[in-house]
Amino acid sequence: MKTPAMLAALMATALTIGPALGHAQVTSDAPLGKPDAIVDLATSDGVRLVKGKWRYSDTKIVEVDHRGVGPDLRPSGPPNRTYDIVPHAGTADFDDSGAVGLGSLQTGSDKLE
Question: Where are the domains of the chain?
Answer without folding.
Answer: 51-113
